[in-house]
């Protein structure tokens, strides 16, 4: 893969951020100390999460803090032509929102390099086909225009995750490999805990799944129930339509439960001026 675009270093010094947005291309040394603990709320503030389609690409890092400043504005990443983001440790901490990697990818980011990642953020990025790496040696190679083999980028990941990333994300992998798969009972292979037995009885045959269901291995299982709330329903629909077209055939729709959660009180709607505060007060029941 060639990452044809600029590298954005999420520096602790706001002046280094402003210089990059103004057109300066820095290297790792020139970026200075990188920000640790970049949260998903900084990547996509709550107001941005009201969007679920390509408009998310306008908002990545608009909540990012460097000192007391928030130097990255709306459209800054997309207009800056950035393809790679570099940050410090524990990248993606906080709320487990798929909006964050979705916004980064929609803005043109194809790879995140950080010293370490929070687990849920990285899994969300994997499923959306956004590459992540802890190898800082990639930075200079990318700056030289070198192509990086996808096999190198996924070499340290489990077999299922590597296959998903190589396919461009979970839905693309499923479209190519999971149609017509069947369940299998993987219980009884060895002594198992109750949790392992439940997984074993829901296991799905897949070309890259680990039949042993050993701890740390990747596998596919059938869910008895699927839950989704309003923040993610629109995004889910947009991603499904983008991969499978319209209409999308739903399997076992009776097992899918949708509910209101974050927006039930209408506070985010009011903050975004999507409706009048007085009308919300008249309809909201605590």
Give a structural overview:
The protein is an alpha/beta fold and 286 residues long. The chain has two domains: 6-148, Aconitase, domain 4; 226-283, no CATH class. Helix content is 35%, strand content 9%. It is built from 14 helices and six strands. It has helices at 14-21, 28-31, 40-43, 76-80, 99-106, 119-128, 138-143, 150-153, 159-167, 170-177, 194-201, 230-244, 267-271, 277-283, and strands at residues 6-9, 82-87, 111-114, 131-133, 226-229, 256-259. Helix 12 links the parallel strand 5 and strand 6 (256-259). The N and C termini lie far apart (52 Å).
Number of domains: 2
Beta-strand content: 5-15%
H and E order: EHHHHEHEHEHHHHHEHEHH
**Helix content class:** 25-40%
What general form does the structure show? globular
* Number of H- or I-type helical stretches: 14
- CATH class annotation of the largest domain: Alpha Beta
Task: Quickly give the structural class.
Answer: alpha/beta
**CATH-defined superfamily of the largest domain:** Aconitase, domain 4
Question: Which consecutive residue ranges, at least 5 long each, have pLDDT under 50?
Answer: 277-286
Query: What is the straight-line distance between the termini?
Result: 52 Å
CATH architecture of the largest domain: Alpha-Beta Barrel
CA gyration radius, whole angstroms: 21 Å
- How many beta-strand segments? 6
> What is CATH's topology name of the largest domain?
Aconitase, domain 4
Strand order within the widest beta sheet: 1-2-3-4
Largest sheet: 4 strands, parallel
Mean pLDDT across the residues is: 87
């Amino acid at each position: 893969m060639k990452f044809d675009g600029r590298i954005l270093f999420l520096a602790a010094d706001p002046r280094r951020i402003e210089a990059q947005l103004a057109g300066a291309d820095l290297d790792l040394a020139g970026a200075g100390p990188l920000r640790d603990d970049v949260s998903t709320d900084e990547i996509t503030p709550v107001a941005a999460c009201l969007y679920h389609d390509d408009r998310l690409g306008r908002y990545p890092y608009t909540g990012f803090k460097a000192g007391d400043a928030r130097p990255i504005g709306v459209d800054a990443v997309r207009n800056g032509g950035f393809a790679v983001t570099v940050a410090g440790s524990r990248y993606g901490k906080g709320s487990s929102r798929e909006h964050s990697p979705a916004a980064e990818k929609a803005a043109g980011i194809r790879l995140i390099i950080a010293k370490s990642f929070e687990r849920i953020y990285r899994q969300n990025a994997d499923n959306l086909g956004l590459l992540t790496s802890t190898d800082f040696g990639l930075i200079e190679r990318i700056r030289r225009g070198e192509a990086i083999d996808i096999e190198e980028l996924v070499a340290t990941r489990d077999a299922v995750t590597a296959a998903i990333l190589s396919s461009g994300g979970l839905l693309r992998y499923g479209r190519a490999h999971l149609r017509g798969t069947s369940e299998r009972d993987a219980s009884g292979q060895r002594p198992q805990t109750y949790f392992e037995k439940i997984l074993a009885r829901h296991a799905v045959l897949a070309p890259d799944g680990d039949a042993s269901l050993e701890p740390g291995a990747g596998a596919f299982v059938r869910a008895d129930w699927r839950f989704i709330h309003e923040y993610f329903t629109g995004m889910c629909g947009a991603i499904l339509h983008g991969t499978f077209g319209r209409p999308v055939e739903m399997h076992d729709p009776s097992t899918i439960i949708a509910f209101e959660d974050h927006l039930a009180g209408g506070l985010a709607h009011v903050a975004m001026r999507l409706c009048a505060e007085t009308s919300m007060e008249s309809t909201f029941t605590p």
